[in-house]
Design a protein that fits this description.
Layout lengths: L2 H7 L40 H13 L4 E5 L2 H8 L8 E5 L4 H14 L2 E5 L4 H7 L4 E7 L11 H11 L2 E5 L4 H4 L9 E4 L14 E5 L2 H14 L5 H11 L2 H20 L4 E5 L9 H7 L6 E6 L2 H11 L4 E2 L9 E3 L11 H6 L6 E5 L5 H12 L3
Length: 380
């Protein structure tokens, strides 16, 4: 079946008892056992819940994976993926990664005995240079946050397979509609389902998708043992969001491309970063491994932080917020918000400069969004 058919129908068959077209929310902590010596498929909601299982089935199919495991947040999902590591192992990560991912590497994994080296996100050779004998995982975001750099997933998968390394891809920005890393050779795909999969800025969640049975067993065991599970209402909301994922992603992309082209011409803008623009350094790579370019774009302003502050605070439709991927347009300063807790030296190393503005383009009318951006830029 096609993507949108799976998104609407898998895990969403009419409920057998009443015929309800919308699947029920199984808001229960425990399930009755048939007898002392028997138990059904579901017996305790930390271990399994029908609402959660329906979501996991859909996510696995959408990513062309065999297994999906859901969690209470995107970083909880990342921590689950990290369970394939042990003290003494080494990770090679993209340099341009989400601040929460960086904190996991440096504040949680390093004290546990797992070291991380950071490679130039867009340069495959940089990952090779960072690999050690003890390297067990390559962790990438593509497109990355906030610089929208593109990693060559297929090339990195070949390198990982040659060396017995697990390749994990954070696919949050692209969504499974625009990119399927498992098809390109990745071993693990991670999502913050808070973002495009949920799509309405009303739920927090995460997911890990894999096809390897042993990897899945490690991740699934962690889910039950650590209890970092999403509640059934959270799963229901994400499942509801997935039903319109195709339509939303196409509109996000259409609006983002329209605005990226308009902003490239603006005298106050020194740079527009969007994989769908021919000016993007990895535009051809993005075309090869993605079926679309997503709804995120980043711009740099000529006036630095004062210009950023003036522009952001003058916007009327764009909401100043730390998240992304919702139906409404959001704006953030990476240097002051999402990566604000990092030291100035670390932000400099990542090229997260004060002049950057990250835009999560929503589903409003593109002309209205353009008018809002132009009036805000005119105040600088």
């Amino acid at each position: 079946m096609h993507f949108e058919t799976i998104a609407i129908h898998d895990g969403n068959t009419p409920e057998s008892c009443t015929g309800s077209v919308t699947p029920p929310v199984y808001q229960t902590s425990t399930f009755a056992r048939p007898s002392l010596d028997e138990r059904g498929e579901f017996f305790y909601s930390r271990i399994g819940n029908p609402t959660r299982s329906a979501l996991e089935s859909t996510l696995a199919l959408l990513e062309n994976g065999k297994h999906a495991t859901t969690f209470a947040s995107g970083v909880a999902a990342m921590m689950a993926a990290m369970q394939v590591l042990k003290p003494g192992d080494h990770v090679v990560s993209s340099l341009d990664v989400y601040g929460g991912s960086y904190r996991i590497f440096e504040q949680l994994m390093r004290p546990w005995g797992v070291e991380t080296s950071y490679a130039a996100s867009e340069a495959t050779e940089s990952y090779i240079e960072c690999i050690r004998p003890e390297t067990r995982m390559i962790w990438i975001e593509s497109p990355s946050n906030p610089l929208l750099q593109i990693c060559d997933i297929r090339a990195l998968a070949e390198i990982a397979n040659e060396r017995g390394i697990v390749l994990a891809v954070d696919n949050t920005f692209a969504s499974p509609y625009f990119q399927r890393p498992l098809d390109l050779g990745a071993h693990i795909v991670v999502h913050s389902t808070t973002k495009y999969l949920g799509g309405h800025s009303d739920v927090i969640g995460g997911a890990v998708v894999a096809s390897d049975d042993n990897l899945n067993l490690t991740i699934r065991n962690y889910q039950g043992a650590a209890g970092a599970i999403p509640g059934p209402w959270d799963c229901w909301l994400i499942s509801r969001g997935i039903k319109t994922l195709k339509i939303r992603m196409e509109e996000h992309q259409k609006n983002a491309l329209h605005l990226a082209r308009a902003l490239e011409k603006h005298p106050a803008v020194s740079r527009v970063i969007y994989p769908g623009l021919e000016s993007h350094p990895q535009h051809e790579l993005a075309k090869r491994q993605m079926s679309g370019f997503g709804g995120m774009l980043t711009i740099a302003l000529k006036g630095g932080l004062p210009a950023v502050r003036k522009m952001i605070e003058s916007l009327k439709l764009f909401v100043i917020a730390d998240s992304l991927g919702g139906v409404e347009s959001l704006v953030a300063s990476p240097a002051r918000m999402t990566l604000g807790p990092l030291s100035q030296a670390e932000r400099d190393r990542r090229a997260c400069t004060d002049d950057l503005v990250r835009l999560s383009i929503g589903l409003e009318n593109a002309e209205d969004l353009e008018a809002d951006l132009l009036q805000a830029l005119a105040t600088i």
